[in-house]
Amino acid sequence: MLHRRTVGDVMTEEVVTLGPDTPIHEVATLLDTNDIAAAPVIDDDGAPIGVVSASDVLRHETGLPDPQGQEGDDERAWGKARARTAGALMSSPAFTARAHWTIPRAARELRTRHVKQLPVVDDKGLLTGIVTRGDLLNTFIRSDAEIRSDVERDVLGRILGLEQGTVTVEVQDGIVTLRGRVSQPRLVGVVVGLCQGLDGVVSVVAHLATARTD
């Protein structure tokens, strides 16, 4: 089996966190100093109970709720505009992810929830990291050298057991080109499918001959 990277592989483990009683001016300072777009708010046990984003802070500074008017008539939105602590300003509940989730599952969750980051929790619901849209995108933006190494080592070597040099691999801009010979016609589709399953692969071009069969 090919190793498909998970949330646990790409998440940030050292997370800047806030407490419910963290003053708003400290929230703004922490976000700015650490150059992050949001931070989870955790309880005394270390479980995320909400998230405060830079957008929340900016809305707070205007003294108004959602500037687009989406929550303008909502008392909670006006309460957030008057907030003095992270607990009052945060978006809650906190939508979370698990370390074993696949990258596509996490990406789908971000899109469904309309958020840019997800705190990652363990089986007890305690914070273990955070994953952002940027973390997920970086999974698919891999160097050609990394992709070529995965094809040669994992697909051709470990899984198919082909002798070195039987199939040559070229990768340019994520496009994998295979040249050589395989023993059976059915292996062409297998090789292509396995390569397409690698993170970062854009497409696969196969110039593979097969041994003649009587």
Q: What are the key terms here?
A:
214 residues, alpha/beta, CBS-domain, Histidine-containing Protein, Chain: A, 2 domains, 8 strands, elongated
Tell me the major beta sheet. Answer: 3 strands, mixed
Would you tell me which CATH topology of the largest domain applies?
CBS-domain
* CATH homology-level superfamily of the largest domain: CBS-domain
CATH architecture of the largest domain: Roll
Class per helix and strand makeup: alpha/beta
Kindly state the number of beta strands: 8
- End-to-end gap: 32 Å
Cα radius of gyration in angstroms: 24 Å
Strand percentage lies at: 15-25%
Q: Quick check: average pLDDT?
A: 88
Number of domains: 2
Helix share of residues?
Answer: 25-40%
Low-pLDDT parts are 67-72
Counting DSSP H or I runs of 4 or more residues, the number of helices is: 9
